[in-house]
Structure to design on (316 residues):
């Protein structure tokens, strides 16, 4: 049992956060992770406001433990999402993809614990100034949207730790207990894990996408669309089209047209593995089986403990 700042802040037993992922993490996954002693997050980026409200209510019915909502700040109806988490008294909100200065004061005035996701030290410093309670520092290995700096988790976490005093949750490239132990060695007090939780029955991702995660191989994902918003994708037909366009010097406008609308939904929710956008992290190549979310939490936590014990033996 760990009793560090992250466990206290969220009132959880295991400092394992399930990332809020568009199309993949609704109430079923979030409540399963929270019931297992971690922190489950509803990914609101792909939800219309009414849908978000429904997921929050179902999550409350499915768990008596704390859970949270991830709100990407580039969401078009952002005011509505913010109002819903306040009205529904969601205890914890993770914001991402935007400035932490905009919404942190209002959320905190309403008694909500606020965590912001960053990809670089300069953004982490801004978070602390904005008064957030903790930071997720997400490295280059992560799936989906990512920083332009391309800092790996190994490089990012110690530098963020040097510049802020608030607790840091490491993300990017973490799917197993040894990686969690490595993140703690770098100074993290919690981990945020996305890819591993896509490969669970509780994830709302399409079965085809879950299978694609399990089938993915070393080198099977790449960070792309750097002119728009950098995003790590599985290298499928759609990725190859984007890659070819980028190599011939396509403009941001051409790339936006190629992307079109609802590509992520097509791939991850509707299961179109050729034409869809398939957002997943590098660690997917190590994920070989689909298992219930509670087993994933227990396994990661057990491996984490085993790793710490074997490391302690090194020094006798
Ligand atoms: P697109 O603009 O291509 O498509 C919008 C998608 O979001 C559609 O599939 C639509 O569903 C759904 N949607 C949910 N709520 C709304 C709304 N209020 N207005 C319009 N569409 C809505 O965007 P993406 O699929 O690339 O991204 C969707 C959203 O997810 C982004 O706006 C952003 O907020 C978020 N996002 C966050 C990420 C992160 O933080 N890691 C990563 C990627 C995206 P439908 O097809 O049913 O109309
Ligand atoms: P820019 O890189 O042009 O950033 C614009 C401004 O947005 C920044 O100067 C800063 O403004 C603010 N900002 C954006 N993201 C953050 C953040 N995570 N923390 C603190 N401030 C932020 O364009 P984008 O908005 O497209 O991307 C910003 C960065 O965020 C990029 O590195 C991008 O790749 C990444 N990103 C991360 C996502 C995620 O975490 N899930 C999703 C999408 C993008 P100011 O200094 O005025 O406050």
């Amino acid at each position: 049992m760990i009793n560090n700042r992250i466990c206290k802040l969220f009132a959880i037993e295991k400092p394992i956060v399930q990332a809020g992922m568009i199309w993949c993490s609704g109430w079923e996954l979030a409540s399963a992770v929270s019931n297992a002693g971690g922190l489950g997050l509803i990914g609101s980026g792909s939800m219309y406001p009414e849908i978000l409200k429904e997921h929050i209510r179902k999550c409350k019915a499915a768990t008596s433990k704390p859970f949270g909502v991830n709100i990407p700040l580039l969401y078009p109806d952002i005011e509505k999402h913010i109002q819903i988490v306040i009205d529904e008294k969601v205890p914890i909100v993770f914001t991402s993809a935007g400035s932490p200065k905009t919404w942190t004061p209002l959320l905190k005035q309403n008694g909500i614990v606020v965590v912001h996701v960053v990809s670089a030290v300069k953004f982490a410093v801004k978070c602390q100034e904005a008064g957030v309670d903790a930071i997720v520092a997400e490295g280059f290995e992560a799936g989906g949207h990512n920083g332009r700096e391309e800092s790996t988790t190994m490089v990012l976490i110690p530098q963020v730790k040097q510049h802020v005093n608030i607790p840091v949750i490491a993300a990017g490239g973490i799917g197993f207990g040894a990686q969690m132990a490595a993140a703690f060695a770098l100074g993290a007090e919690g981990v945020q894990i996305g890819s591993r939780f896509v490969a669970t029955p509780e994830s709302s991702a399409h079965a085809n996408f879950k299978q694609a995660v399990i089938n993915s191989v070393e080198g099977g994902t790449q960070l792309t669309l750097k002119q728009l918003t950098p995003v790590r994708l599985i290298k499928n037909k759609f990725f190859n089209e984007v890659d070819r366009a980028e190599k011939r010097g396509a403009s941001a406008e051409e790339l936006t047209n190629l992307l079109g609308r609802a590509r992520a939904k097509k791939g991850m929710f509707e299961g179109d593995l050729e034409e869809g956008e398939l957002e997943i992290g590098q660690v997917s190549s190590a994920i070989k089986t689909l298992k219930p979310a509670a087993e994933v939490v227990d396994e990661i936590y057990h491996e984490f403990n085993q790793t710490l014990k074997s490391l302690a033996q090194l020094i006798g």
Residues 96-101, 117-119, 123, 126, 138, 145-148, 229-230 surround NDP (ligand 2) (CB under 6 Å). Residues 5-204+288-315 form a domain with the TIM Barrel fold (CATH 3.20.20.70).
